[in-house]
Amino acid sequence: MVDYAVTNYRFDLKTFFPDYIFERITQIRVDAPEVVEQQADERKRRTNIAGEDGKLTILAADHPARGVTNIGNDPFIMGDRQQYLGRILRVLTATEFDGFMSTPDMIEDLMIVDYLVKEGGGQSFLDDKVLIGCMQRGGVAGVVGEIDDRFTAYSADSINYFRLDGGKMLLRFVPDDERTLSTIDYCSQAISDLNAYDLPSFVEPLRMDFVDGQWVMKNTADELVKLVGVLAGLGDSSRYTWLKLPYCEDFHRVTMATTLPIIMLGGPSREDPRMTYQEFADGMATRSNVRGVMVGRNVTFPGADDPAAVAYAINAIVHNGASADEAIELTMNYRDTAMDALTRYIDEVANAG
């Protein structure tokens, strides 16, 4: 594998996303909340969400809505909204990542910043992006019974109203907890509700066990083959269903369990992109129904590196067939590209409240 080096480099979030822009978001929320609906109505949407090559790179950012804020040894790194939102904006403004998945508050933050960019004479960075609404965050981490994952965010109705491009849901499958059956029911109904609007569902199964006081994933090929069969059969039709699956050993067996399109999830942040690159490259080469990735923390918080550089490399793996080694080279060469994507249009003086 090509040497990966960060050396003295460290991504500077506030150069890209300074305090005055972050503060401006709240001002718009108070003074002009109608901006959100205005941006939703005006946003240019794709005709085909998967584009010409049928593949997708989606940035995921819904963990804080379930009370998950930790990465590595830092228990609250995702609890700093300026850092979190700024890193998301970094990816969506400086790369060709196809889209974004999150909860209403985060998507609306993006719409407000998009409005500010356009007010300053720039082009929308959300036009032609695939926006996926997270529908379910009721299984709040650490709460007894969290496996009963209620739907508490977007509904199919609101996804359609705000002209988003689909909905995402999670099934944490725990064989010895009957609340799993309730979550299966919630997901089945949500898929049918989205089908009524001809909107795609992105369904994520995670096989879980409760070990030493915490939920632990058990995503082997044996487990996932069974779960894929369950999820593919949910709802009144599978015509718009995509599966979001973790890469694992013998992944080919998992891909052979369905004809539905598959996108790979990124999992917990390793704070080093090399293993993520290798897994995504291997996964994309497995079978033709593997159509991309929906990845979060491994892009937004890649250690000291630039989230845009990591996203740029992953996009190349998915859309251009880049190898893991090529992705490393792309990362090191793309750092700090387009760092003025926001500040060139959103002026500190002009936007002072």
Specify the CATH homologous superfamily.
Answer: Aldolase class I
User: What's the structural domain tally?
Assistant: 1
Strand content: 15-25%
Oligomer classification: single chain
The helicity comes to 25-40%
Order of helical and strand elements: HHHEHEHEHEHEEHEHEHEHHH
Class from helix and strand fractions: alpha/beta
Architecture in CATH?
Alpha-Beta Barrel
How would you describe the overall organization of this protein?
The structure is a single chain. Strands 1-2-3-4-5-7-8-9 form an 8-stranded parallel β-barrel, surrounded by 6 helices. The mean pLDDT is 95. It is built from 13 helices and 9 strands. It has one domain: TIM Barrel (Alpha-Beta Barrel), CATH 3.20.20.70. Strand 1, helix 4 and strand 2 form a beta-alpha-beta unit. The longest helix has 17 residues. The chain has 353 residues and is an alpha/beta fold. It is globular, with a radius of gyration of 20 Å. Helix 4 packs across helix 12 and helix 12 packs antiparallel against helix 13.
What are the SSEs and their pairings?
Blueprint: H1 13-16, H2 19-31, H3 35-42, E1 56-61, H4 81-94, E2 99-102, H5 104-119, E3 130-134, H6 156-161, E4 166-173, H7 179-195, E5 201-211, E6 214-217, H8 221-232, E7 241-246, H9 251-255, E8 262-265, H10 274-284, E9 290-295, H11 297-300, H12 307-320, H13 324-334
Parallel strand pairs: 1-2, 1-9, 2-3, 3-4, 4-5, 5-7, 7-8, 8-9
Antiparallel strand pairs: 5-6
Helix pairs in contact: 3-5, 4-12, 10-12, 10-13, 12-13
